[in-house]
Amino acid sequence: MIYGLVASALVALGLYGLVTQPALLRKVLAFNLLGGGVFLLFGVVAARGGDPVPQALVITGIVVAFAATALALVLVLRLFQITGAATIAEDETRR
Amino acid sequence: MTLLLDLILGLAVVGVAVWTLAVRENFPAVIGFVAYGLLLALVWVRLGAVDVALTEAALGAGATGVILLFAVVRLRGGRAEIDAATPGPRQRLAAGILCGVVGLALAVAVLSLPDPAPSQAAAVARHLPELGVANPITGVLMAYRGLDTLLEAVVLVFAVLAIWSMAPDRRWGAVPGPVFPVQSNGPLSLLARLLPPIGIVVGIYIAWVGADAPGGKFQGGTILAAMGILAWVAGLWRLPPVASRGLRWAVVAGPLAFIGVGLLGFVFADGFLSYPPAIAKPLILLIEAAMTLSVAAALVLMVAGPPEGRRA
Amino acid sequence: MSTLLTLFSGIAIAAGVVFFLAGTVALLRFPDPLSRLHALTKADSLGLGLIVLGLLPWAGGWFAALKLILVWLLVLLAGATATQLIAERLRGEDPPP
Amino acid sequence: MEATPGGFLLVLILVAPVTGLLIGFAQGGRAAERIALWAAPLGVTMAMVLLAGVLHAQAPIVAFVGGWAPPLGLALRADGLAAAMLMTTAVIIAAITLFARADYTTLPGAPEARAPLAFWCFLLALWAALNAAFLGGDLFNLFVALEMLTFGALALACLDGRATQFKAELRYLLFALIGSVFYLLGTALLYGAYGTLDILLLSRTARSDAPTIVAASLMTVGLLGKMALFPLHLWLPAAHAGAPPAASALLSGLVVKASYVLLLRLWFWVMPAALLLAVAPILALLGAAAILFGSLVALRQARLKLLVAYSTVAQIGYLFLMFPLVAGSAAEVAERAWTGGALQAISHAFAKAAMFLAAGVIARGMGHDRIAGLHGAARVAPLSVLAFGLAGLSLMGIPPSGGFTAKWLLLQSALYAGQWWWALVIVAGGLLTGGYVFRVLSAAMRAPSPDFMPAAPVDARQERVALGLAIISVVLGLLPLAAFGLVLIGR
User: Fold this and answer.
1) Residue-range domain boundaries for chain D
2) pTM, whole model, 2 decimals?
3) Where are the alpha helices (DSSP H) in chain B?
4) Tens of pLDDT along C9-68?
5) How far apart are CA D110 and CA D447, in angstroms?
6) Contact criterion met (CB below 8 Å) for B142 and D66
7) Complex ipTM value
8) What single string gives the DSSP state of each residue in D111-170?
9) Partners for C (CB, 8 Å, 3+ pairs)?
10) Please, where are the H alpha helices in D233-369?
11) Domain boundaries, chain B
């Protein structure tokens, strides 16, 4: 299946972005790319067996991922509003 | 022919993903992400999962794209800090190797999944008549794995409250999100007047047909939420303050109806979330209706963010 | 009859694809945002309209056909609004020539 | 396995806090507080009935939600381990409810405020999520439970709204999200390979093939990240130490245990024994590293709350020593190790909750939490210092505490299994723990300078709650060993 390979590639890409991108916004974006890959993997599993169950799992997963994204973005915005920081790099002002 | 189509689509998805990660500016990255989500929705259609395609397009690309754009507009600058925190080439190489290994392991695992694939399709179909619905996805979401869906609906309530609780104390009780000026004329105002009547019909329709055809509460609720957001951004609709009881009951109505019907199962059927076959479909539609409302309300609030305005 | 319909659909859809292609080329090649917008929306609105027209005979029922037309109308509306908004923004930013 | 009588109890214990949270949220802060106050005794009662039921039947209580049996439907299962964890959760939540009233009460007629509403709702939310995580019999359902847990924990930790905390919590969120993604990838592969995610059904069919191995590795790494096992502990100290005391107690005492129980289910139920034998020593090695590293770093902390948080990093390590001792050992040794591991999870929950609550009271009374400046703390908050000390006994593993019994069981089984090196780690960890606990106590016992003034009065009830939890963590060690046969039911 082509899409199994596509899903694996998307997971690798998303993970790479999540780890290496310093800006929080871009980390959140990469997390969503990664999520797309994970869900696609479920889709491949569903298509192989002609099975609706993994499709239902993906719908649940997409909703949860959206909630996580919204929450993360609010945290990012609040951090930015208070401190002007756009990354979570360690700074020396702490403690 | 179809193989070629799949190949092109697959390459396009991966290509857009790479571009989204590589592009330097935030705004095009988000646009790239929305394109990625829409392409993924096409992939879902190719995989025969129209319900998921609708969800991906509405939530994964649409709603996620909107909140990302909101964030981009409000996060300005920080370039120097970001550059300073950018990992060096050696770290990037290490991360790349690690992620490559994960991707490779996944690929190997996917390719060595057993043939024929195990499937619950037959079991899902066998019991659908007892539920009175024709869409197997709805059967899974509302009956067989109803607990998943219930907990997921509760997660949405968690998210709304968690987002609100990030507000500064002095803003508590106020209207969520920024207040947009009223656009008395202009294209946005026109759209915000023209589209919602159609969109609300479409949203309810999609939630309604979910029992028998692709669609359902999450897809329909997202469309309803989009109409609300449109009216809000155009200044035509003021969100109720977070202290509003009505607003809060709208957010919890879905999961509460779900639990209520579930508990009735103790009395009238075989236990929690079990539906008596005679009235299974009306019960499922009742839950779906309440959930559509709650999903729509929760999504609008999640897009709007924590209370920012003055106390109402 | 059905060959005629197939032919009609084929031509309409092919024409629609040509318009999409033209619009995309314009998006990539035209020099300034306003002319890009101009070319893109024209081509896409018409292109989608032709494709919808080509698909209508195969919709299998008036309800599905209605939905196809509704899709086209909604895209027209959204496209027009988005273009207007972008154009307004551009006019606001650039000094008048 | 069939559904058993009493299954409705599992549903109630899950649905009750969810309903309370929904109504509390809709009706506002004061209603949420009242619901939480009523929920606390109700929760303890339900957990006790459930525990008695499991003990009576000497078998797990099982419910099929909606009457749909797996693989199509979802099962909730309360085995001995789950019943014990539910009980622990109910008691600690009840204690935190009592503790938090002083901080988060809404007076009659007062307008609703942000922090109280969020606190009471998320207390109920976390309770529901923990119950779901301990009872869940389906790997995807457990994923949803873990997400609920993450959201609730995050919101509680940010309650003070300080910028440094936002940063710490974002780091936590990133770890948690990557952990979730890894876990979810594993469930996709397992579903593709076996067509079910039910833990018991998987345990009968799991093979040692490529998809299973990849799934197991991904899920394990994801869960280790969520529970902050060394070297994935980076997020924990700041995230737990910066939260309000009532939240820290929940996060450090209970939330990390949900991922732990899930990890146990993954390895001792789902995965084939051959795989477990290969992985167990690696997990224990990481655990040993966590014990030594966490304790050493805790020893060097300048601040009380960070010390307590690093102590969590160390104590989590003990939980992993049981893996090689249970896997592949004779039944008797395996049972000892299993009991030791479970008891460590429980006694640490009580001790750490007590410690964080006590540290919170001390920090408020002194106006700071610098360990070097704690002179006079024993005079300002005597019961809290006592609670800290008693909880410390349990963490060190000094008899007759629950921590002692746990570590003694692990130590014995290490010797019986011929893996004496783990015993050395346990002893070394105990000594180091003693070091950092006594550092705090000796500073607190010191007489203050003559012009010393407490920064704020301490709440006597809060002190008593912390002490109560500490006493429980000690008394656990006085129970006869047979009482812990509970955690073996349904293993």
Assistant:
1) 1-134, 138-271, 284-491
2) 0.94
3) 2-22, 26-46, 50-55, 64-74, 79-85, 89-111, 121-131, 136-139, 146-164, 187-209, 217-233, 245-268, 280-304
4) 999 999 999 998 988 888 888 888 888 888 888 888 889 999 999 998 888 888 889 989
5) 42
6) no
7) 0.94
8) PP-HHHHHHHHHHHHHHHHHHHHHHB-BHHHHHHHHHHHHHHHHHHHTTT--HHHHHHHH
9) B
10) 236-241, 245-250, 256-264, 273-299, 304-326, 331-366
11) 1-86, 119-312
Give the integer Cα–Cα distance in Å for D400 and D363. 28
Interface of D with B in 209-228 (CB under 8 A): 209-211, 213-215, 217-218
Q: How many helices (H) and strands (E) does chain C have?
A: 3, 0
Comparing CB atoms, the residue among B116, B140, B156 nearest residue A63 is B156
Total number of domains in chain A: 1
Q: Which domain holds residue A36?
A: 2-83
Q: Which residues on chain D are in Cβ contact (under 8 Å) with A48? A: 192
- The residue of chain A nearest to residue D140, with distances taken between CA atoms, is A57
Q: Exposed e or buried b for every residue in B192-219, given b needs 16+ CB within 10 A?
A: beebbeebbebbbebbbbbbeebbbbbb
Single-letter code of the amino acid located at D373: G
Residue for token pair 């795989």: D275
Residue B245, pLDDT > 60, answer yes
- The token duo for B130 is 């007892």
Encoded tokens for D94: 């009840």
Q: How many helices and strands in chain D, by DSSP H and E?
A: 19, 2
- Between CA D243 and CA D158 the distance in angstroms is 7
Q: Evaluate whether residue A92 is within a structural domain.
A: no
Q: A87: closest CA among D172, B78, D157?
A: B78
Q: DSSP letter at D75?
A: E
pLDDT of amino acid D1:
62
Q: Please count the structural domains in chain C.
A: 1
Best probe of the B interface among C37, C63, C77, C91, by most B CBs < 10 A, is C77
Q: What's the token pair of residue D4?
A: 């058993």
Given a contact cutoff of 8 angstroms between Cβ atoms, the answer to whether B227 and B203 are in contact is yes
Any B CB within 8 A of A89 CB = yes
Does the beta-carbon distance from A78 to D169 stay under 8 Å? Answer: no
Pairing state between β B174-176 and B307-311? antiparallel
Average pLDDT of the residues of chain B: 91
Q: pLDDT digit of tens for each residue in chain D (491 aa)?
A: 678 888 899 999 999 999 999 999 999 889 999 999 999 999 999 999 999 999 999 999 999 999 899 999 999 999 999 999 999 999 999 999 999 998 998 888 888 889 999 999 999 999 999 999 999 999 999 999 999 999 999 999 999 878 788 888 999 999 999 999 999 999 999 999 999 999 999 999 999 999 999 999 999 999 999 999 988 989 999 899 989 999 999 999 999 999 999 999 999 999 999 999 999 999 999 999 999 999 999 999 999 999 999 999 999 999 999 999 998 888 889 999 999 999 999 999 999 999 999 999 999 999 988 999 899 898 889 999 999 999 999 999 888 899 999 999 999 999 999 999 999 999 999 999 999 999 999 999 988 888 888 888 889 999 999 999 999 999 998 887 777 888 888 88
CATH architecture of B1-86: Up-down Bundle (1.20)
Residue type, D192: G
Distance between CA D417 and CA D411 in Å, rounded?
10
Mention every residue, 6+ apart, whose C-beta is less than 8 A from residue A41.
A4, A7, A8, A11, B106, B110, D185, D188, D189
Nearest CA in chain D to A49: D192
Residue A53 lies in a domain: yes
Closest approach of D491 to chain B, Cα-based (Å): 25
Residue A77 is part of a domain; what is its CATH number? 1.10.287.3510
Angle at B152 between CA B197 and CA D186, to 5 degrees: 125
In a domain, A18, yes or no: yes
> Which tokens hold the place of D104?
């988060």
